[in-house]
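To whoever is on call:

I kicked off a structure prediction for a single chain this morning and the downstream step that reads the tokens threw a length-mismatch warning. I double-checked the sequence; it's 164 residues and nothing unusual in it as far as I can see. Pasting both halves so you can look.
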Amino acid sequence: MKTDKRKEYFGWDETFMQMCRVIANRSKDPKTQTGACIVNEKNIILGMGYNGFPRGCKDEDLTWSREGRLCETKYAYVVHAEMNAILNANAPTSGAKLYCKMFPCNECAKVIIQAGIKEIIYESDDYKSNTDDVKIASHKMLDLAGIKYQQYVPKNKLIFEKNK
């Protein structure tokens, strides 16, 4: 007797977006938890990352503040999830696909381009601290570099819904 395969399994995009949500929970940022996952053409994970301070910098020695002079805020110190995923990659990322919770900022876009990533699947493009100029610059560079990007549309309930 033949048994049919299960029908409610995750597709690849859904699997890797779920992974982004899981790794985002490693972030100690009290306001924003984000994650990224890089995969090759065979859907093998090359690297993962979340937003946080650089290795060797103790959380207690820096601030998570969002207001004040640049050096008095987290923005001067936090490494974004996309950069961490690239830095954590265990193989070359040329031709790879990047999954991320938030559309990459202009600084991450530069690193993504330099890493040879060819496609981005992102969940949200509405993070409040990304100014119009940051979004315009990021989109412009990615377009000029020929990097495809698309917003992820969930097919099933995402885990960790609180981390939007």
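Update from on-call: the warning came from a stale cache, not from the record. Cleared it. Sanity check on the structure: Residues 11 and 155 are 9 Å apart (CA to CA).
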